[in-house]
Design a protein that fits this description.
single chain; 115 residues; mainly beta; 4-stranded antiparallel sheet; 0% helix; globular
Length: 115
Amino acid sequence: QVQLVESGGGLVQAGGSLRLSCAASGRTVSMNAMAWFRQAPGAEREFVARISRGYTYYTDSVKGRFTISRDSAKNTLYLQMNALKPEDTAVYYCAVGVGAQYVDWGQGTQVTVSS
């Protein structure tokens, strides 16, 4: 089992930037797909971005604004978020993929974007 710890969330004004980090421990995750999800109040958890074998995928609402990346040497996943909007407000979670499923999740980090 992998332990995931997110950090980097906070309060930012609309148009601002944040960089989220997800540190993995317990085993290396460099060969796994990894992803970011988010959950806004009263909403279901939704996919944000994924990185797998050097390929990246994004939900339409964040394309051109968010960038997912990883540092395999540090066993860490990142999400650079630019041009933030109030609708990006949510708890952001990282996850490790095995096959078609995400099997390990972090505890989440709060991102709040004020208008």
